[in-house]
Every structure is written in structure tokens, then in C-alpha cells.
Design brief:
The structure holds three protein chains of three kinds. Chain B is of the alpha/beta class. Chain B contains twelve helices and ten strands. In chain B, the strands form two sheets. Chain B has an eight-stranded mixed sheet, with helices on both faces. Chain C is an alpha+beta fold. Classes of the chains: A alpha/beta, B alpha/beta, C alpha+beta. Bound molecules: thiamine diphosphate, iron/sulfur cluster (3 copies) and magnesium ion.
Chain lengths: ~400, ~325, ~280
């Protein structure tokens, strides 16, 4: 069934289709619509879940941890300051291997406050042990909530997953979304059946104080789960494609890359706009292509290496700054491509929710192409930023 | 009502844990869990109890144990309870939080769970300071007490604020049950734990739990010091059930706070003036709790009976 | 405290020294570990000490369970708080050993079984690494600052007394102490997320309730003796014991104290309404 809905609504419907059992919630723009929709589902009897109105995001993630450890399928959503506020608890859920799924409506974090899209909220949590993925439209938002639960609860992974959707650009934008049938989702995502939970019939200790003799092995184990997650993500992507007819490509997606000379790596909704830019440039005969970084954790180093093996220059889009000079994605990409000789340059844009226009994306391609021809361009460009000349 | 004799022999919190000798927290946990029984799931926030009760791969708990952080007992309990309810499982969901984890950093989370009236049992193990980090002041630290962050200096001596009135804060949430407990009154202790276990909604048990190094006292006196706290009015035993407050143990004639203070190195530096100040605070509390309607205020204190010197051992270990 | 005081004394003699504790999780009274490194030049190493020149043991009951000289250098020395002579102490190796009854010195002078200053006197005597005079100074300074001059002086006296009573010799090397087994899973073996259910490993129980294999009797200086004739079976001691040491036996008709878990707190003796329990020294 097709419905014209916001990204937040799509996420909420995704959660409902997953038959989530416990939803601790706290409002924050631009995520609030998600929990409001879920509250409606529960109040109307469309979703049989415990909806908990917590008094803070820290408590949201604490309740999520408790409910997950007690064996429930747990969903919640947050954004920006909320994600920062629960930061400590992100580090509790992941190493304890509690497969919570939480949507993050990407929003600028910190002072001065704003409410529009930026990735500095989720980027700050990139080493908390959560899987992170970024979607480009409302359909993908819904579909990835469903896939997230599959990935999170897979015994080879057992890690929390954070699907991120661009604040306002998706959360508050309506577009047509194909809503899968409940039965189809039920056969794709079986009930959550963890091995060890808090159960008086078989007592367990979860989250014990842990001396240095053990923590290192535990971290290594979690790192291993991130490695396994890559294969799981690919598998689940294929399975999903077969069942629902939508193939997202797995860890990355590519567009017009086969014969491309120049490519741009993008995330989130900028990918969507960039598709049209690539089309336009292609019409002009320029061999440009697009790589959509879908998963930022685990980081798809091998996929990227393969995707760019034949091109002469690579641009990397970043929607936040990491104060080493460029953005965090740029950093990761360069280290993934270590040893390759092509120029890799960074394009910072859209920070604080500034609109990322086609002209800006054109410019990104233009600068990257120049670098590919050996012309001198800045390693890091701030697009559409007053006082900057690129 | 269960008596001591009828208590279970199950050691659901086993021997071999690593609390200090004489620990009042360990003593209270052991007896609480004896009453609560095995259909219990426990959350313990960061505190001494987390460390002495579990150290990977070992643990003293024989009921399910969960820990994640310091300030989130209320929220974790709510989440656990929601999951059990959804799954149709009947278990007693219990949190054992310290005073720091309740009066201070965990107040908001506790308040959330209380206000939602979530069906959980919240136990505060009040040893009147942050003990796990080495004895720092909390909102539950009494007036005059030495802690490492309220040191006895040349200019300022000990904690300058009176103990936060947590009971009224919790009760203001209009929850089904709030009670204060002391291990020195075993029957009252057992009865309240049993009662809380059998009620529904948010229940709060506030346990007075001496700490040996934190209070700088002789480990043998753990129980005795709680008795003196009650006799002097420093700790009062009552319960508030659906808004009705009831004194559950009324001591005889009020004893001087000195009786209580002198047992503990943390108060030894207190000036006569400060002791008087504390005594006035206690008198006010005493009248509030114990005075019959219309009767005149009392503050007639029996002279201190016996002065317990702090032993050499404690002075050496923990300073004067 | 002893490790730090030793470092201070070494520095006062113009050396460089570092001292640090091993941060264990156990509370007061549990066996603890501390390290001191002394050198004539600046010490850069920030790791724990694995092959010491000297091992100082403050509680000889540890000798039964821990191979205290496991990492000791071949020419190293052991200094042990014990009433025995070196020749009567079996360390599993014949090595230079010094003994002193620091506990009785501490009880005599400090009126408490706190042996860390006394044992330093033995260290000065046996190793000669520091002079007893420098030790005296740093003890006075360190304890004096915190606890008053009188306490400082008494602790210095304890060190001097131990210095004078230290006996040096060679240990015996008969017994074979097996290293205490510890479960050390690989990252593939460690349960997912460190979540444990009841389990058994080569090294013993793990998971819920497994602390039961942790014998804590070594913490106790005193232990309770119950006079069965006086006991009225009121069960207060059973109720109050924070350890779960006292258990009901004979169909709940009698009590038994399992000394493996008794930390000697004395609560049971203090609370017994008929004074049926006396605390006695656990060892001399
Ligand atoms: C967010 C956070 N801040 C600080 C700490 C350090 N910390 C751990 S336990 C503790 C004190 C606990 O005090 P209390 O709750 O009174 O329990 P007690 O140890 O006294 O029983 C502190 C400050 C922490 N774990 N987490
Ligand atoms: S420090 Fe206090 S509360 Fe902590 S284990 Fe020791 S006696 Fe108990
Ligand atoms: S001395 Fe303490 S630990 Fe030992 S039996 Fe008595 S109460 Fe228990
Ligand atoms: S407290 Fe004394 S009288 Fe009561 S059971 Fe124990 S030993 Fe017997
Ligand atoms: Mg405390």
C-alpha cells in the first residue's frame, strides 16, 4: 500500500511493523513525530507495546537497556541534544550486546542551538559500539528500521543499530512510501529470542564490574561482531530485496560508477540530490559517479576500495566537522584508501541545516575533477560558507 | 508476618562477597533478598554494592543481576518491569541504589519512575556519602560529618548542610508506599520488606546502612549504631502508605545525639556549638514525627550515657 | 601507605622512587598489592613490577595460598611478617628471607594490628636499601601530617622495634604451590557481552553465586567462638552476619560458623543478647 507520509511517520510505521514490545520515549525536534505516532498506535490498540514516557533521554536509553536485557524488542528515537544526553548509556547497551534500535533524526548539536540537519550528533557517538546507517528517503527510512532489527538481533551481530535520517529534509517532508504488509514483515523478522536474559528461572549477571583481565577480550569480541556485521548486512539486504523488491546495495550503494573518472561519496539526502546532478553532468558527457555511504559503522573499507579502484579523483562530502581540518567521513575514507594515489578531497557543506543545493554539488564535482587533472585545489573546501573561496 | 526464625535459609546473596567487614549495606541487602525471594530481578547502579557483589566472572547474587550506570536506577527498573509485564512474567523488580545514586545524581530518574507509579521496588541503601569513590559528601550526608570533600579544616569543619529530607520528596510523588528501615529493628525491617514486596506500584524502602570506613567506626558496632540513631532521633522509623503516615517504632525518651555521634570518627571533631545545632535539628524532627497532637514540643535530652572512643585502628586508617 | 612511605624515604636519600597500588576491586581488609621502584636515576617505566628484587609480605597466611616469590629474582629477598624464623618458613625455594613479628609489635605499640610501618623497619634492616633513620623521618612526616605528631612517633617506634627484632636467614624450599587457577577466556570464549549464567570452568565456578568459592577468612584478625551452652538460638547473629557465615544446621536446631567466610567483624559478638560469642585472635 502506498501512502504519502513524512520520514518520521515512515519510521514509526516501520517500528510498528516490527512489533516492537517496549518503547521508552522522550520528545525532541525533529524526532518528536516518531514517538507521537507510536503513542497513537499504542493508544489505538494498533500496536501492543509498552510505551514509557520517560523523564529524559538518559532514562530513555536506561529503560531501553533494562527492557532489552529482560528480553524485549526495544525501539526508540532521538536527536541531537537527546543523543548527547544519553551518550553514557550508548556505551552501556553496545558492549552488553543489547540489540536496541533507535532512529536518530540528524540535527545540529550544541551551542548555539539549532534544530536543522547536521551529523555532529551521531558522529560523536561513532565509537560507542552502535551500528550507524544513513538513509536518503522516507522509503529507505521505513525499510531500514525493519532491516535494523534483523541485523541487530542476528546472533553474529547482537549490537544496537542507529538508523539516521536527515532532520526536516526527511523527518518533516512527505513523499510516497510503499508500506509492506504485516504478514510479509512477520515472515522476514521473527520474534526476538535472546540466549541470555534477566530471568529468575535461569539467573544471569549482566553488566558486572569487570577487571582489566577481561575487558580487552570483550572489546576484541565486540570488534569481531562489527566485522561479522558486514556480511550480515549484505545478506539481509539481499533477502530484503528478494522479498520486498527494493535493493539498497548493502553497506554502500553506487550510481554510474562503472565507467566513472570522478566520484563523490555522499550520505543521507545529499545522495538523493546528487543523483540528479550526476545525471545532468553525464548528459554533458562528464564521466562522474556517485558512492552512497550507507553504513558508517561498520565502515565499509573494502567496498569503497573496490568501488574507486578505477577512478582518478574522489570527493568526500561531510555534514560535520571533526576539527582535524576536515570532516569525520573524510578521515575514515582516506584511511580506508591508504596506499591509493588518487587525490581525495573533502567537501564540507550543509552544516547547521544549510541547504545543500545542486550548484554546491556541481561545485564539489568540479573541484574534484580539477584535482583529478592535477590542478591545485584545497584538500578541504567549505561550500557556501561566507569568507571562504574554493 | 515473617519472623526471624521463619526467614529463608537460601543465600541468594552468597558468602564470599568482598564488602568490608561489618558492612551495613551488605547486611541489609542479604536480609532484604532473604525476604524478597528468588523470583526477583535486581538492578544495582554504580556503588559499593556493584563492586562487592559482582566482579567478573564472579558474583554473589543468585537472582538475575543487572548494572549499567550510576544515575539511572529508576529508569532501568521501569524498562525491566515493562518488558516483564509485556511478556506476562511475574517477578519483583528491585533496585538497590546508594544515597548518591538516589538523593543526588539519580534523583531525576527515581522521580520519573515514582511519578509514573511504575510497579517496581526501589531500595535506597543510605550510608550517607559516596563510599565507592572513597567517602565524598552526598545530599544524604548529615550536618557536621567529615567526608573527603567536607574535610575538617582550620576554617570549615565538616558538612555544613543538614541531611536532605528525601522521605518527603519521595512521598510527594503520592506513591503507594514509602518506608524507612533500620537493620537494628529486625522485625520492623522484615515486615516492611515483606509488605513492599506484596504491594503494587512504586514502592520505596529507605534503609539506613552504616559504612565502616566512611563513618570511621568499629565494624562490630554496625547494628548498635543504627539503634542509637533511632534512639536519638537521627533516624526515624515510619511508613507512608497511600498518603497515611504511621510511626512504626517510637523510641522511649529522646537520647542525646552525642550518644550517636561519639561512636563515629566522622563526627569526632564537632564543636559543642555544632553539636547543639544538630541537636536542635533532631529535636525539630523528633517533634514532627513523634509528638502527639497538641502536646508541647520536647527537646529534653537525656545526657549521653557512654562515650565510645574511636579505636586506634580507625584513627590510623582513616585519620582523626 | 607502606609503599609510599618507602618511596619517600628513598627519595630523601637522594634516590628516585615511584610507588603505586594495584587497583583491585576488593574493599577494606582484602589482600592488596602495592609496588615500589627505587633507582639512582629517574624511573620512566610505568608498568607493574613482575620481577622484584624484594617481596614484602604483610600477612603470612597468604603463603598458604599464593606463591609470593613466583616472580622474585634469583638473588632476591623475601621479608615476611611472621612469628616464625626464616628457617621455618617454606617458600618453595631456598632464598634469603627475613622475618619479624610485625603484628605483635603493632599490637604492642600501636594497639592495632596495622603492620605497614613495622614491616618497613624490617625492610631497612634486611636489605639495607634505605637507612632506618630516613625511614623514621618519612614515617614521622607522613603519618604526622595526617594523623598528628604522636601517631607519627609511635609508628616510627614500631619501625625501629621491628628493625631491631628482624631475623635474617634462608627459607626452606620444600612445598610446591600451584599457581592459583584463574579463568582466562580468549575473546572467542568469553560469553557474549560478558553476560554470565551459572557455569563451571577449570578454575572453578563462575557466574551467579560463584563468590561462594571466594574464601575470605584471610581478612580476619579475630574470629567468633560461640558458647553453645549459653546460646538461646535467638538467631540474631545469624540474621546480622553480613557475610552469611553463620548457617542453620540440624534441622534449624543449631548454628554453625563457617570460618571460610568470616571476616571477623565482631557484629555477632556485639549483638548476642546473652554474650554467648567471644572474639578471639584468628592467628598470632
Ligand atoms: C556518571 C557517573 N559519575 C560518577 C561516577 C563515579 N561513582 C561511582 S559510584 C559513586 C558513588 C556512589 O555513591 P552512593 O550512591 O552513595 O553508593 P555507595 O558507594 O555509597 O554505596 C561515584 C561517584 C559514575 N560511576 N558515574
Ligand atoms: S566502604 Fe562502606 S559501604 Fe562500601 S563495602 Fe565498605 S563498609 Fe560497605
Ligand atoms: S565475626 Fe562477623 S563475619 Fe564473622 S561470623 Fe560474626 S558477624 Fe559473621
Ligand atoms: S545471638 Fe547469641 S544467643 Fe542468639 S543465636 Fe547467636 S549465639 Fe545464640
Ligand atoms: Mg552512599
Amino acid at each position: 500500500m502506498k501512502k504519502v507520509i513524512t520520514g518520521d511517520h515512515a519510521v514509526a510505521i516501520g517500528a510498528k511493523l516490527c512489533r516492537v514490545e517496549v518503547v521508552p520515549a522522550f520528545p525532541i525536534t525533529p524526532q518528536t513525530l516518531i514517538i507521537e505516532h507510536i503513542a497513537d498506535f499504542v493508544s489505538d490498540g494498533d500496536l501492543d507495546a509498552k510505551f514509557l514516557t520517560m523523564e529524559s533521554e538518559h532514562s530513555v536509553m536506561s529503560a531501553a537497556a533494562g527492557a532489552s536485557a529482560a528480553g524485549a524488542r526495544v525501539f526508540t528515537a532521538t536527536s541531537s541534544q537527546g543523543l548527547a544526553f544519553m551518550h553514557e548509556m550508548l556505551y552501556a547497551t553496545a558492549p552488553l550486546r543489547l540489540p536496541v534500535v533507535m532512529a536518530n533524526a540528524s540535527r545540529t548539536l550544541g551551542g548555539p542551538p539549532g534544530i536543522w540537519c547536521e551529523y555532529n550528533d551521531s558522529m560523536g557517538a561513532r565509537d560507542s559500539g552502535w551500528l550507524q546507517l544513513y538513509v536518503e528517503d522516507n522509503q529507505e527510512a521505513l525499510d531500514m528500521v525493519i532491516q535494523s532489527f534483523r541485523i541487530a538481533e542476528d546472533k553474529r551481530v547482537l549490537l544496537p543499530v542507529m538508523p539516521c535520517l536527515d532532520g526536516f529534509v526527511l523527518t518533516h517532508t512527505v513523499e510516497p512510501v510503499d508500506i509492506p504488509e504485516q504478514e510479509e514483515v512477520d515472515s522476514f523478522l521473527l520474534p526476538y529470542e535472546p540466549d541470555i536474559i534477566l530471568d529468575p528461572k535461569r539467573p544471569a549477571m549482566i553488566g558486572t564490574f569487570m577487571p582489566s583481565e577481561y575487558i580487552m577480550e570483550l572489546r576484541r569480541q565486540t570488534a569481531g561482531a562489527f566485522e561479522s556485521a558486514k556480511e550480515v548486512i549484505r545478506q539481509i539486504n539481499s533477502e530484503f530485496a528478494q522479498k520486498f523488491g527494493r535493493d539498497y546495495g548493502g553497506l554502500i550503494d553506487t550510481y554510474m560508477m562503472e565507467d566513472a573518472h570522478t566520484a563523490l561519496i555522499t550520505m543521507g539526502t545529499v545522495t538523493s540530490t546528487s543523483r540528479e546532478v550526476v545525471d545532468e553532468l553525464r548528459r554533458k558527457g562528464e564521466k562522474v559517479g556517485l558512492i552512497k555511504l550507507r553504513f558508517f559503522r561498520p565502515f565499509p573499507s573494502n567496498e569503497l576500495k573496490k568501488a574507486v579502484s578505477h577512478i582518478s579523483a574522489l570527493g568526500v562530502f561531510d555534514r560535520s566537522i571533526s576539527y582535524h581540518g576536515g570532516g569525520p567521513v573524510y578521515n575514515e575514507v582516506r584511511s580506508a584508501l591508504y596506499g591509493m594515489t588518487m587525490p581525495v578531497i573533502n567537501h564540507l557543506a550543509g552544516i547547521g541545516g544549510r541547504d545543500v543545493t545542486k550548484e554546491q554539488i556541481m561545485k564539489m564535482f568540479e573541484l574534484t575533477q580539477k584535482a583529478g587533472k592535477g590542478e591545485k585545489v584545497n584538500d578541504i573546501s567549505w561550500h557556501n560558507t561566507r569568507g571562504e573561496t574554493n | 508476618m515473617i519472623t526471624i526464625k521463619e526467614l529463608s535459609d537460601d543465600n541468594l546473596f552468597t558468602a564470599g562477597h568482598t564488602a568490608c567487614p561489618g558492612c551495613g549495606v551488605a547486611m541489609s541487602i542479604r536480609n532484604a533478598i532473604r525476604v524478597l525471594g528468588k523470583d526477583t530481578v535486581v538492578y544495582v547502579p554504580a556503588s559499593c554494592a556493584v563492586v562487592f557483589g559482582t566482579t567478573f566472572p564472579y558474583g554473589a547474587w543468585k537472582v538475575p543481576f543487572f548494572h549499567t550506570a550510576f544515575e539511572n536506577t529508576g529508569a532501568c527498573l521501569s524498562g525491566m518491569q515493562a518488558a516483564f509485564e509485556k511478556k506476562g512474567k511475574k517477578v519483583t523488580v528491585v533496585g538497590f541504589a546508594g544515597d548518591g545514586g538516589t538523593y543526588d545524581i539519580g534523583l531525576q530518574s527515581m522521580s520519573g519512575a515514582a511519578e509514573r507509579n511504575d510497579d517496581v521496588l526501589y531500595i535506597c541503601l543510605d550510608n550517607e556519602a559516596y563510599m565507592n569513590t572513597g567517602i565524598q559528601r552526598s545530599g544524604g550526608t548529615p550536618f557536621g560529618a567529615w567526608t573527603t570533600t567536607t574535610p575538617v579544616g582550620n576554617v570549615v569543619q565538616g558538612n555544613r548542610r543538614f541531611k536532605k529530607n528525601l522521605g518527603d520528596i519521595v512521598a510527594a510523588h503520592e506513591i503507594p508506599y514509602y518506608a524507612t528501615l533500620s537493620i537494628g529493628q529486625p522485625l520492623d525491617f522484615i515486615r516492611k520488606v515483606e509488605k513492599a514486596k506484596n504491594m503494587r506500584g512504586f514502592r520505596f524502602l529507605h534503609m539506613f546502612t552504616p559504612c565502616i570506613p566512611g563513618w570511621k567506626m568499629d565494624p562490630a558496632k554496625t547494628v548498635e549504631v543504627t539503634k542509637r540513631a533511632v534512639q536519638s532521633g537521627m533516624w526515624t522509623l515510619y511508613e507512608i502508605e497511600n498518603g497515611d503516615k504511621r510511626i512504626t517504632y517510637k523510641p522511649g525518651k529522646m537520647k542525646s545525639v552525642k550518644d550517636y555521634l561519639m561512636m563515629q570518627g566522622r563526627f569526632r571533631h564537632m564543636s559543642e556549638e555544632d553539636i547543639k545545632k544538630l541537636q536542635m535539628w533532631v529535636c525539630k524532627k523528633w517533634n514532627l514525627h513523634y509528638k502527639e497532637k497538641g502536646a508541647p514540643d520536647v527537646c529534653e535530652i537525656l545526657p549521653p550515657v557512654e562515650h565510645h572512643a574511636v579505636t586506634e585502628e580507625h584513627r590510623e586508617m582513616h585519620g582523626p | 601507605m607502606a609503599a609510599q612511605t618507602l618511596a619517600e624515604a628513598a627519595v630523601s636519600e637522594g634516590n628516585y622512587a615511584v610507588a603505586f597500588p594495584y587497583f583491585g576491586a576488593e574493599r577494606r581488609g582484602a589482600p592488596v598489592l602495592a609496588f615500589t621502584r627505587i633507582d639512582s636515576k629517574k624511573i620512566f617505566s610505568k608498568t607493574q613490577v613482575y620481577a622484584p628484587d624484594c617481596v614484602v609480605v604483610l600477612d603470612d597466611s597468604l603463603l598458604d595460598t599464593i606463591d609470593v616469590v613466583a616472580g622474585l629474582k634469583p638473588k632476591g629477598m623475601a621479608i615476611i611478617n611472621s612469628r616464625e624464623k626464616p628457617e621455618d618458613i617454606d617458600l618453595g625455594k631456598i632464598i634469603d628471607t627475613a622475618t619479624v613479628n610485625a603484628t605483635s609489635i603493632a599490637l604492642e605499640i600501636l594497639k592495632a594490628p596495622i603492620t605497614n610501618t613495622a614491616i618497613l623497619g624490617a625492610f631497612a634492616k634486611a636489605t639495607g636499601i634505605i637507612k632506618i633513620e630516613s625511614l623514621e623521618e618519612s614515617i614521622k612526616r607522613k603519618f604526622g601530617e595526617k594523623l598528628g605528631a604522636k601517631v607519627g612517633e609511635r609508628n616510627a617506634l614500631a619501625a625501629w622495634t621491628a628493625y631491631e627484632r628482624t631475623i635474617t636467614g634462608k627459607s626452606r624450599g620444600v612445598k610446591k604451590l600451584e599457581a592459583r587457577k584463574q579463568w582466562l577466556p580468549t575473546h572467542q570464549e568469553i560469553p557474549v557481552g560478558g553476560c554470565l549464567i551459572e557455569g563451571k570452568t577449570d578454575a572453578g565456578l563462575i557466574g551467579p553465586g560463584s563468590f561462594i568459592e571466594n574464601k575470605v577468612s584471610g581478612w580476619a584478625t579475630y574470629r567468633p567462638l560461640r558458647d553453645k551452652a549459653k546460646c538461646t538460638m535467638c538467631l540474631l547473629c545469624w540474621f546480622y552476619c553480613p557475610e552469611g557465615t553463620i548457617v542453620r544446621i540440624s534441622d534449624r536446631g543449631d548454628l554453625m560458623t563457617n570460618y571460610d567466610y568470616c571476616k571477623g567483624c565482631g557484629v555477632c559478638a556485639n549483638e548476642c543478647p546473652v554474650d554467648a560469642i567471644k572474639m578471639v585472635r584468628a592467628r598470632i
